[in-house]
Amino acid sequence: MNYIALRMLFGDRAKYLMLLCGLTFAVMLIVQQGSIFWGLMIWSQSSISNLNVPIWVTDPGIAQVDEVKPIADTTVDRVRSIPGVEWAVPLYKGLLRARLENGEYHQITLTGLDAATLIGRPAEVLEGRFEDLRQPDAVALDQWAVERMGGPTVITVGTVFELNDKLARVVAIAKTQKTFTNIPVVYTTYERALRYVPRERRTLSYVLAKAKDSAPVDEVIQRIRDHTGLGAFTADAFGWKTIGWVLKNTGIGINFGTTILLGFVVGMAIAGQTFYLFTVENLRQFGALKAMGASTATLARMILLQAFTVGVTGYGVGIGLATVFGLLTAQEGQLPFLETWPLLLLVFVALLMICTLSALISIIKLARLEPAIVFR
Amino acid sequence: MTILNRVSVWLAIAGAMLAAWVVLTAGKNQPMPTPLVEPPRSPYETTVAATGIIEAANENVRIGPPMAGLVTNVFVTVGDRVREGDPLLQLDDRDLRAQLVARQAAIPPAEAQVEEQKYRIGDLDTQLKRLKSVRDSRAVSEDDVKRTWYASEMAKRALNRYEATLKQVIAQRDETQMLLDRLTVRAPRAATILQVNVRAGEFALTTGATEPLMLLGDIQQLQVRAEVDEVNAPLVAPNRPGIAYLKGNTAQAIPLTFVRIEPYIVPKKSLTGDNSERVDTRVLQIIYRFERPAFPIYAGQQVDVFIERAPDGPPAPAPGSARSAEEPTK
Lengths: 376, 330
Prior knowledge:
Low-confidence stretches of chain A: none
Strand order of the largest sheet of chain B: 1-10-14-12-11-15
Oligomer: heterodimer
Number of domains of chain A: 2
Number of helices of chain A: 12
Domain ABC3 transporter permease C-terminal (chain A): 260-371
Subcellular location (chain A): Cell membrane
Radius of gyration of chain B: 41 Å
Keywords (chain A): Cell membrane, Membrane, Transmembrane, Transmembrane helix, Transport
Domain MacB-like periplasmic core (chain A): 19-226
Structural class of chain A: alpha+beta
InterPro entries (chain A): ABC-4/HrtB_transporter, ABC3_permease_C, MacB_PCD
Helix content of chain A: 40-55%
CATH topology of the domain at 47-57 and 221-312 in chain B: Elongation Factor Tu (Ef-tu), domain 3
């Protein structure tokens, strides 16, 4: 029976390809859009993941990482005083304008790391030495800053530019994940960052901390909140908070959601219609089988097998194509594209739903089928 | 199997494998790069962290000028050891010296006047004696004797006046001399010159200057001034041990011995090293003594301080509770 079902499916090449194309298209659209959407979301919290520290402490009213709410300098010591905190270092983060030698201005994100430990520095350095940040007037850039500010011919190790009328000399170029806003990131030490920025009463943006290995992170975070009255988050939680903010305050979620829904609906429409036509065309054969004594359940199983076979094939080709698209366009992190297994799983479930639904229509048709149709 | 004869099926398998490979290899979190130097960690179970600055044991002296004026001479350089009273710098004193010349010149005439008056008195006294020695009232009238006596007495009073004037002139000269001396700024105590922020030819201000002309301190004995946020102030107990790390050197800890807690909470000053600090909170200062370690250490260096909390010390306050506990009881 299964053999017959598959022969029926593969026998009509044109219909089979039509079905396959419809499903492949739907899967590809959903996976590709989903991956871009997720890539964008990951970009929106790059500022957190790029620094790669476990605990962030700042004002409790913070909504997302790029919205800085300065806190008192002594907060570092207050966090250090909390039992279970292994270390805590200050972080400055703020927007500033850089003026290049050629007279161009660029908005940049100034990131001031603790001078002694440089905790929060990028893991991968493309050019120069990140440790040279301790030299006078030294700053480090990420590779996107080089790209945004005019490319490697304009910005390289040794280039000098002005930050708020003060000299900055590039000593290293680091590899980081692109951010949502794609504002170039300039790294320097905390003390030097304060020298670059205009005067403010409070300057500390974040306290970066790590819990002792012996203490559960959640407990330490709760203790920081209770003792200091500040907001403390794990990097993950802060990332989700930022993603939530982006979804709530921009149209990205609705945009991508609509596209994904459209992919789902179009895929379902194509698959359902084609499959229905396929079943209708083969009604005579099904009728013959029924006349030969095949029960409706057997026929239903055949239809489902056909639907799932074409569905799984379409799924495989679809995710393959989406992955190739991702590999081609999102090289070097230029485009946001991140495939994750939950997305693939979700798409698989959606696909099974499409297949089941379109099979169901055909099954209903078959259930009402009179075997006598063969003789018409 | 029919199923394996289809190109589409092979394509599907290839696609799924590619996707699986991409998903499995991508998105792996890199571990955090190891810090260049270990961040300062507390050696104690419960601790109060503070930021500290190393300073001379009996506080640094910020030398200021007695009055605004031009600096004509700086007698010391950074690192010099000075004793009490050693001259440090000289302010412009030309106007006072000019005055001194004039005041000095006023002394000899006053002295001469006194001398002159003494002779006048001598003359009158001799006259009076001679007149008195004549017994014949026809030769010398009573009137003449009286007149000469009065003249002599008046001359003596005039002498007193001249002597007073002389004293006044001398006092005026001494005044100028003292004012002159004041323009030489001297070391208030034996110390080492830590900073010289003035050069000959600069104008020294008495108010509005951001840095002292000179910084004096005894660097033989150093101490740590640790600053704890006022919120954490109740957690600090006296006589608890502490430990300090120089910025960027967490390998070598400096054990601290408690000296005292400053009783007055002050606006926070250290941390950025900026010379006009932005006040955003107030801090409790605790003084610690330490033995000079084997590695070099300088006054003015910043340190990260960890102070052990008292064993059954006050629990960390919940937010707001610190304030309510301090509410005045009427």
